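Record Sulfatase-like hydrolase/transferase, 462 aa.
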Amino acid sequence: MLGKTIFYAAAMSVGVIGQAADQVPGGHPNIIVIVADDLGHGDLSLTGSEEIKTPNIDSLAANGSFFTDAYISAPVCLPSRMGLMTGTYQERFGVQTLAGPGGTRDYGIPADRPTLAQELKADGYTTGAVGKWHLGEREEYLPNQKGFDDFYGFIGGSLPYFPDKPGMIWHNERNVEKTQYMTDDFGERAAAFIEENRGDPFFLYLAFSAVHLPLEATEKYIEPYNHIKDRSRRTYAAMTTAMDINIGLVLDALRKNGLYENTLVFFVSDNGGFPRFWASNAPFQGGKYVLYEGGIRTPFLVQWPAGGVPAARRFSEPVSALDIFPTALAAAGAEYSGPHALDGVNLLPLLRGQTDKAPHERLYWRYGPYMCAMREGDFKILKNGTGDNKTPQWALYDIVNDPGETMDLSTRMPDKFSAMKNAFTVWDEALPEPDFIDQRLVEGIAWWEVKKKGHEPVQEQD
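=>
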């Protein structure tokens, strides 16, 4: 199933992304990108949760830096992961939404968009992916074809967590049996990858499926939360703790092997959580599937003690998960080989105090035919067509003073409003037609707002 790795030669270069000066005397840093799935922004103790304890995730902020105004490039996992893995807006290569139930499975990262794994592999890194892929199911789109030497996980959007339930785990070309709770399995496999590759620089992409559906956790993780009355919320909290404990396992593996100081670690979520069912995106409105802040704002943590990333520092400049790609390349001293310019920005100068300039003038989103948004400085414009609303009107919000997006300022600031709409139109009109659209959006089905017995969302499918 998973075949030989393919390298893509660049047709042209867009310049040097990383310079030797971005490295440290210890040589090439190891690089780890940790991605949570459907995590509520308010469900870390770091972001204000008094209910769910996440000491290991919090430690990344204590020993590194926390971007408070960070975003993912889509409110759902497939497009947001494509943006992260390529460093470019996925809309630029025809991906805006999920495929949806019954939709095409003929999607993947195109050959002219090299992945972070391909770029780092070409620079001498050993590359590994553990967990959820969801970046294409055809042979040419699978992990070993996209720069990963080693893959352990599943290919689609979700999988049951318990070993006695159906679902296929792959280790490269082999199907292997699930032997334990999947979050624990992924944590142990990630720690083993670190141990096996401790002698050479490595890139590890650790994409947990937690806390995505199905809501499943073992009793040892549920027990501390038995006081939570709502069953779904209780299980969700347990799944979050399971992920946090396994992130601790990975950090312990770095310490054990003397790699902690010179390993660059990123942590983000792929989109917001489900606020109507179990997750909290406080203080933001909305969640997964919509472009309110609750759907696209992510906790973004960066730790690299030997690389000059300050400890216990918060940055309020708007940044994006797209920035992980060029920041990692810069840390590795690698050059980007792709034929298209990156949309992400190297964050190391900001992190190291070498500049106080905001990395982005604007950030953009296009999610299907009726939802789009743009952030510029403290302000955001939003067109949020959901349900039967196929003719939504633009609104303008001051995100810094109104993070809940409750007060539309479009009539009070007409000049600002008009200029921002014009800037978005320039970006939007340069996009190609999408390769596919989740038809539920076209049909006006707000499936994420509907409950059924057991608190499971109707038609929740990636």
